[in-house]
Amino acid sequence: MRKDNTLYVVIPCYNEEEVLEETTKRLKEKLSALIKEKKISKDSRVMYVNDGSRDNTWNLIKKINEKEKLFTGITLSRNRGHQNALLAGLMTAKNYADVVISMDADLQDDINAIDEMIDKYHEGKDIVYGVRSSRKKDTWFKKTTAQSFYKFMKFMGVDVVYNHADYRLTSKRVLEEFENFKEVNLFLRGMFPLVGYESDVVYYERHERFAGESKYPLKKMLNFAWDGITSFSVRPIRLVLNLGIIIFGISLLVLLYCLIVKICGKAVTGWTFVVCSIWLVSGIQMLSIGIIGEYIGKIYSETKARPRFIISENLEETKKNK
């Protein structure tokens, strides 16, 4: 495999003006070093993806693009969320690159892991996952919820790499195959293992966020986890079915008990039992309908087949057309 492949580093950005200059500085040093070592081509770039930011992020990206030849960017027509913005960057970058690395703008992902990712790519790996080596810096709550998330995803039958977010290397042929995945409800870290091809992992220590605030508070994390489960597993519906079978079995036993008590002439007014039974069964029914409704909602979204993102400006193409 050639050593001078063109690398694009894709970075989704939403209100990242506080960190963008530092991210640019560090990535410029990293890419320049890799080019000097002839590990990647001089045509390699960092592609920022502006996800409908409300601050000065897009103007900063355009200024960086004018000053630094190693940097380019695209902007979406409106905010589409992290996963759609990342997909937009990947699908755009594959037109220019041989290999693409995705990472976040907040500098929590260790950029020094890029070297090892490139080495593994040169060894023939098409996908290289960046995996956290530990969670020592996380709070107890964050560590517990994160570990519970991965364990629960595995229990639900979703194939995800443990402690891997969206810091990964993918080859051009992986992205060309990935383009055939048309689902609207995206959970990229669960989709890439479905592509196949040879893969490996690189372990790194995750840093504190350099500046700004996290774009994934607890509510968004819970929604993200739920999207991942319902997009990749029908096990919740099967659990509803199993629960229904269990309750049906219990109801038959209760019916048999009531008949025996009636025949024996020992029937007693069971107000508490009746009320509790009604509330329990009604609650389970509402929960079951809600889970099934979530799947129906996703089917509704998929059948409309609306575009997952719309790129309003591509600085790479703008330069070529000048």
Describe the protein's architecture and organization.
By secondary structure, the protein is of the alpha/beta class. It has two domains: 226 residues, Alpha-Beta Complex (Spore Coat Polysaccharide Biosynthesis Protein SpsA, Chain A); 70 residues. 52% of the residues lie in helices and 15% in strands. It has an eight-stranded mixed β-sheet, with helices on both faces. The radius of gyration is 25 Å and the shape is elongated.
Give keywords.
2 domains, 8 strands, Spore Coat Polysaccharide Biosynthesis Protein SpsA, Chain A, 322 residues, alpha/beta, 8-stranded mixed sheet, 15% strand
| Helix-strand topology string | EHEHEHEHEHEHHEHHHEH
- SS element count, helices: 11
Query: DSSP strand (E) fraction?
Result: 5-15%
Radius of gyration: 25 Å
CATH superfamily of the largest domain, called what? Answer: Spore Coat Polysaccharide Biosynthesis Protein SpsA, Chain A
Largest sheet: 8 strands, mixed
In helices, the fraction of residues equals: 40-55%
- What name does CATH use for the topology of the largest domain? Spore Coat Polysaccharide Biosynthesis Protein SpsA, Chain A
The top level CATH class name of the largest domain: Alpha Beta
Low-confidence stretches: none
Mean pLDDT: 76
The outline comes out as: elongated
The strand count comes to: 8
Strand order of the largest sheet: 7-5-6-4-1-2-3-8
> Which structural class matches the secondary elements?
alpha/beta
- Tell me the CATH architecture of the largest domain: Alpha-Beta Complex
End-to-end distance: 34 Å
